[in-house]
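Quiz preparation item.
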């Protein structure tokens, strides 16, 4: 590929940047922030259909509600039948490869609805053929172990899948079916919350509603043979149901997540609790969350997350600001309004954090708190209210840091199961947020931040792979082994190292050098980046990698000539690829690289737009500063 010279690069780059920036600005809602759009999900649709079908089957409630649910159930099954993959299975999104979890859940959804197996017999037969090929059969003794094997000791998702299969009659009936559902110790939810980490629960921190509801369903249908366990569970049944109601948000949707809420609703309704307030509110959430085409998304929205990403991408520009004074003021006011000022009832998180959404089911987490802090830094001089919010947010992140120096998602100290342990991408994001505000914090907090940053860098050094890459927690690539995405992870860690390199943290330089070399080596022949070397390039991964490498232009002057040459060639090839995507209109096509809870794939329509703006702006700024002549 012939290199681009500046005379060719600059006009096309500027044109692509202006187009991308304007389209991202146009994507704001009438209130001045971004809501985005999550992909429809076969998995969510299947679980919602099952939940409403179990409620319909068990309830003696109002006839008009049942009629309405029957319509939603029918439209959901129609959507599933119309969006099966050619191989007969389903992936989590319409762009995802088939997997055993989603295929089993979709198969169960047809089984729970009377007459659906016959009406959709070709769809059901194709799904069964797919499951037989992957699991060896659809008999319970073959299917159940295959599902459990996929998740290992983490029961966060394997037990809910088997619960839905039991309720649908797919793994036998009555006690036979429930014998395949591993019991969950729901009685432990009655213990003080501060004990949870020490109790080593078999589910991650966010899955407490599933632990209670599914644990109770299994106990209802197949009580423990151990008389002590049986007695304890009987005694704690009402107490844990009360806790479940207390942590249910006003929207009815636990974490605003359709699958989690669906599992709670179907479990309670299927065990004699169809009229319980938690069941009723959860079912109302599912009814309100359906889309006109009959599908459900994985979550309602990621408004706070995509807004902070958009702000940080647009605010990187030198020269005239992409956001005017009124736009920045509106976003600042909205972001400040999203900060949690009281202990959260779900995770008992201290005040000071931000969640991914502006809706009541959100929970404060590390990535969104770091993103909000960086966005508040990006949109102008802080006033007293902003400084107070920032101080609380920085303190919240400091309190989340694990003993290993890394940053987890929600809760400190849980550590062992996926989505609770420390993660390189979350740690890097926290480091950037701390670095952005460190000099403006009170002296005592500056000292704490410096110690936390040193520990965080030590964690990044420990978690860097031998090849120089890092693997993230909340993003993956379906073409990679174990669904990993080292391109995303490395591209997110490098900016943090670039912020800290050549400062009082010299360890950052060595990590940065190895990570940069790996990211250059991962570039595809077409100039983009993706997952596996022979997999497709995506806008999201290419833009993130390009931005990270373009930022390295700041320090290439002290690098060896051969390294400068490789870096320059990689950036030129990457920017050409991305410009061509914008010029052809392909740049807004999303890829399913997002992981929701329990490795559920999703794509977000704003990700490619946001990451494209950030990457093109970074390259443009480097050229303007003559750092990349």
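Solution:
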């Amino acid at each position: 590929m012939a290199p681009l010279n500046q005379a060719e690069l600059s006009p096309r780059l500027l044109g692509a940047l202006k187009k991308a920036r304007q389209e991202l600005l146009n994507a704001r809602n009438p209130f001045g922030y971004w809501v985005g759009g999550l992909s429809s999900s076969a998995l969510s649709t299947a679980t919602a259909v099952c939940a409403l079908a179990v409620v319909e089957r068990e309830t003696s409630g109002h006839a008009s509600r049942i009629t309405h649910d029957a319509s939603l159930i029918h439209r959901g099954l129609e959507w599933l039948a119309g969006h099966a993959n050619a191989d007969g299975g389903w992936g989590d999104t319409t762009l995802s490869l088939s997997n055993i979890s989603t295929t089993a859940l979709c198969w169960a959804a047809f089984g729970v609805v009377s007459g659906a197996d016959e009406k959709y017999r070709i769809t059901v037969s194709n799904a069964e053929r797919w499951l037989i090929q992957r699991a060896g059969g659809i008999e319970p003794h073959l299917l159940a172990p295959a599902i459990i094997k996929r998740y290992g000791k983490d029961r966060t998702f394997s037990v809910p899948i088997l619960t839905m299969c039991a309720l649908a009659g797919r793994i036998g009936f009555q006690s036979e079916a429930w014998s395949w559902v591993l019991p969950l110790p729901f009685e432990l939810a009655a213990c003080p919350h501060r004990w949870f980490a020490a109790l080593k629960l078999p589910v991650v921190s966010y899955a407490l509603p599933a632990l209670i509801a599914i644990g109770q369903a299994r106990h209802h249908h197949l009580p423990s043979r151990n008389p002590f366990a049986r007695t304890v569970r009987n005694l704690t049944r009402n107490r844990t149901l009360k806790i479940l109601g207390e942590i249910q948000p006003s929207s009815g949707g636990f974490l605003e997540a359709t699958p989690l809420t669906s599992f709670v609703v179907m479990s309670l309704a299927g065990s004699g609790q169809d009229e319980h307030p938690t069941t009723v509110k959860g079912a109302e959430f599912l009814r309100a969350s359906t889309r006109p085409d009959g599908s459900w998304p994985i979550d309602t929205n990621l408004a706070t997350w995509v807004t902070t990403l958009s702000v940080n991408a647009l605010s990187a520009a030198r020269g005239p600001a992409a956001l005017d004074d009124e736009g920045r003021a509106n976003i600042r006011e909205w972001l400040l309004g999203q900060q949690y000022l009281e202990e959260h009832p779900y995770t008992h998180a201290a005040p000071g954090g931000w969640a991914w959404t502006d809706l009541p089911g959100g929970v404060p987490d590390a990535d969104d708190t770091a993103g909000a802090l960086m966005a508040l830094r990006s949109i102008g001089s802080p006033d007293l209210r902003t400084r107070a919010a920032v101080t609380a947010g920085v303190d919240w992140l400091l309190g989340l840091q694990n003993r290993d120096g890394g940053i987890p998602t929600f809760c400190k100290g849980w550590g062992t199961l996926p989505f609770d342990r420390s993660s390189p991408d979350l740690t890097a994001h926290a480091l950037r947020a701390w670095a952005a505000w460190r000099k403006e914090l009170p002296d005592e907090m500056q000292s704490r931040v410096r110690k936390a940053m040193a520990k965080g860098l030590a964690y990044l050094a420990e978690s860097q792979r031998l090849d120089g890459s890092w693997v993230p927690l909340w993003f993956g690539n379906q073409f990679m082994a174990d669904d990993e995405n080292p391109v995303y992870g490395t591209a997110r860690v490098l900016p943090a190292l670039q912020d800290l390199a050549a400062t009082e943290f010299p360890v950052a330089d060595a990590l940065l050098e190895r990570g940069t070399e790996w990211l250059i080596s991962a570039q595809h022949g077409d100039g983009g980046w993706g997952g596996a070397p022979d997999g497709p390039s995506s806008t999201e991964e290419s833009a993130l990698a390009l931005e990270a490498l373009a930022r390295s232009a700041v320090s290439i002057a002290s690098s060896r000539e051969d390294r400068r040459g490789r870096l320059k060639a990689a950036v030129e090839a990457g920017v050409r690829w991305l410009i061509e995507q914008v010029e052809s209109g392909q740049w807004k096509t999303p890829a399913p690289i997002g992981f929701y809870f329990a490795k559920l794939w999703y794509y977000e329509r704003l990700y490619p737009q946001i990451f494209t703006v950030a990457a093109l702006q970074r390259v443009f700024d480097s050229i303007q500063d003559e750092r990349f002549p």
